Amino acid sequence: MGVEICVEGLTKSFGRQVIWQDVSLTLPAGEVSVMLGPSGTGKSVFLKTLVGLLKPERGSVKVAGRDVTRLRERELYEVRKLFGVLFQDGALFGSMSLYDNIAFPLREHTRKSESQIRRIVLEKMDMVGLLGSEGKLPGEISGGMRKRAGLARALVLDPEIILFDEPDSGLDPVRVAYLNQLIVDLNAQINATFLIVTHDIASARQVPDNIGLLFRRELVMFGPREKLLSSDEPVVRQFLNGRMQGPIGMAEEKDAAQVEQELAQLGDGAHTKTPGGQALTPRLLPGPGITRPPRWEAIARREAELHRKEVADA
Q1: Selecting from 3.40.50.300, 1.25.40.10, 3.40.50.2300, 3.40.830.10, what CATH number does the domain 5-225 have?
Q2: Which of 208, 209, 160, 189 is nearest to 291 (CA)?
Q3: Is 159 left (phi over 0), alpha (psi -120 to 50) or beta?
């Protein structure tokens, strides 16, 4: 069962450079959340701050009620056991087989026997579709398989929170689609709290319960998926539609007058119900044979109500 993460007034700087400031949000227990934002907005820094690898200048990060920003190293070590992390490149040891890579956390952090470790490793490899590849080296497999191996390793200690740092990087659209389905299926099966940092808009539209957007050193929005996808906020619409017109420029920010002129030329009216006038993208469902978590009924009701409003206002 996942745990809630409550972030209040979080500010992080490197020297005089403010990465983001006064970030407040709650990641609901057991739900999938996505954090979006242009390059350089500190999304990966945010993940590292949540797990206590970086210390913020101000604010708190409460995990299961404990503020990781104020814990001593030994206490922080205990809280980190709640986390599993999938790094961008999988972070696998190149000289180890997939089996040994996945077994590594169990051998390092538990006193389990090799027979117990084997049972757990094979179970997690089965969950991510890697059974039969135990003896392969990371250099002998595809990027998608390396991601799944990294995910299996993140799962072996049965974490209650899983952080994904751009899991789609380096993958083609087909592999991204498979990975997205795997994430949805895993969340339905283990009910852990997921936070995904990504640039992939298709993933952001289909996978999460909640979406956040970092821009101009602050959290522009965070909330239920359908709220962000139907937002009238110019930076949200620009990012979700991948277009040049809007506040985001090559150097991240544009002059306010330029933004206003671009949006006027685009005819991007304030009454558009979804970014670009598109219908709300259907949410990915767990695969056959996987029971949907109870919260999915509430999600379906919210999205059905939003659809009815769109039809009524059309």
Answers
A1: 3.40.50.300
A2: 189
A3: beta
CA distances from 210 to 25, 132, 287 (A): 11, 35, 20
What pTM was estimated for this model as a whole?
Answer: 0.85
Residue 117 to residues 62, 132, 277: CA-CA distances in angstroms? Answer: 31, 17, 51
pLDDT at 156 over 90: yes
pLDDT for the residue 250 = 59
Phi, psi angles (nearest 5°) of residue 229: -70, -20
Q: What is the DSSP letter of 169?
A: T
Cα angle 73, 22, 36; round to 5: 90
What tens digit of pLDDT does each residue of 259-309 get? 455 455 555 443 334 544 456 777 888 888 888 777 777 777 777 776 676
Taking residue 309's Cβ as centre, other Cβ atoms within 10 Å add up to 12
Domains of the chain by residue range = 5-225
